[in-house]
Amino acid sequence: MTVLAQYIKSYFGIVSDVEIDEISTLFQKEHLKKDDFFTQKGNRINKLSFIESGMLRIFVNTDKKEVTQWISTSGYFVTDLTGFIFDDVSRWNIQALSDTVLYSISKENYKKVGSIVSKWNELEKMFIVKCFTTLEERIFSHLSMSSEERYHYFFKHNKELFNQVPLQYIASMLGMTPETFSRIRKKTGEVNS
């Protein structure tokens, strides 16, 4: 069983092994080298991908600065959701931070999943609700926590990223300047963690 199949089974528990096998055939394995783009702002995106290994950074350049929206790691799905679902151009750049292995499903094949999995409408809704809940939690943390509290929360739940990605990306993702991030990091003694 592939990592993708194992993830589908653990995430969507009510999917049968036969359905998992059939769904898995709709995905194609892809490799991105470090710095390759999964998609770029303004391009059309017609795939949803599961990250088997590696990391992808979701970001955009504004008039004033580059903003990192998220860093996706192994075991998660990635796409520009608005572009994928609404057949619009990508709003985000998505770039590999390391060599990355993906399982990608085209929009056309994604539409076939409903005919394979009898409870797909329910499962898809739960998947989107989980995504929405994660987004809500992020917005709430930005509105209710201080920079230092956001730093501690993120460090506690994503410690491994601090040694794997440039810290200015994490600072941006947390809504702070690299200087503020560095000052908090130094204050907490997590500089060499």
From TrEMBL:
Residues 11-113 form the Cyclic nucleotide-binding domain. InterPro entries: cNMP-bd_dom, cNMP-bd_dom_sf, RmlC-like_jellyroll, WH-like_DNA-bd_sf. PROSITE patterns: CNMP_BINDING_3 (PS50042). It comes from the Bacteria. It holds the Pfam family cNMP_binding. This is Cyclic nucleotide-binding domain protein. It comes from Sphingobacterium spiritivorum ATCC 33300. The lineage of its organism: Bacteria, Pseudomonadati, Bacteroidota, Sphingobacteriia, Sphingobacteriales.
